Each structure stands twice: as C-alpha cells, then as structure tokens.
Amino acid sequence: MPVTAATPLLNVAEINRSIGFYQMLGFVVVARTISDFDDQPIWVMLEAGDGESEGESESNGNGNKIRLMLAANGGVSHEERRMRPSFAGLVWYLECNDVQGVFDALQDGGFKPEPVTDLDDGTHQFFVRDPDGYEIAITGKRA
C-alpha cells in the first residue's frame, strides 16, 4: 500500500501564535481540540490548498491537501527548543506563487525572514523560522 499523504505534527510553545504564523502562509484551521482547563487549543489541524468551495477537495495541484498539525507542548520556551538538535535537521519546503508577497507579509509580521535569493533554475527562495524555531523554506518559480 503506497503512502498517499504526509502530515507533519509540530509541537509548539504557544499554539495561538503558531496558528497566526501559518495563517500568514495561507493555512486555515479545520479542526481543533480545546483544553478543559482554560478553553485554549491544545491541538489543531490546518489545511491549505486551491481555495475550492467547501465540500470539495482542496488540493495543491496534484489532488492532495496540504495539512499541518500543531500541538501544545507544555510550555517549553522558544530558546530551549532552538537549542535542541532534533529540530536542526528539519526544513519544511513550501511552494507558492508569490514568494515576494509571502516574504513581505512575514517581514511585516516581525518574523525576520532571510533575504530572497534567486537560484540558477529560476526559483526564488527564502528561509524563515516559525515561532518555535522550525525552519521553513518558501520557494516558487519566477513569474
């Protein structure tokens, strides 16, 4: 049986802050689990896609939804998470049609993305860290 989808689960220190970050990348919350203690989310599922109408399958162009799960990790600080080597090897590549627009939105949001670079194959690309230190590469072809 072949794998048909992959959904990363990221443990995050401040789930609402992370939701806001990923919403800037076009993700929307489609499911959540709320804590019984403080009415705050402790887990969320986010999706991104073509923006088809509700009830139709959103896709990234090849029939698959782009999904991400976030889970509250019990309050480990951002600084402590960045020092953990287990996060150093992960780079999540996200393709988009407007690399400069995403760069501008993240910079305006205070996330300090690295400068956009042009690769030899005609790709624009930049790197940014999400609020918990996960490295995200935003990439897309030149228009």
Strand content: 25-35%
CA radius of gyration: 16 Å
Q: How many beta strands in the DSSP annotation? A: 8
Query: Which sequence of strands runs across the widest sheet?
Result: 1-4-3-2
Shape field: globular
Please estimate the helix content.
10-25%
Major sheet details:
4 strands, mixed
What is the first-to-last residue Cα distance? 38 Å
Q: Looking at the chains present, what oligomeric state does this protein adopt?
A: single chain
Mean pLDDT over all positions: 80
* Low-confidence region ranges: 51-62
Class from secondary-structure proportions: alpha/beta
- H-E order: EHEEEHEHEEE
Report the total helices: 3
Features:
single chain; 143 residues; alpha/beta; 4-stranded mixed sheet; 18% helix
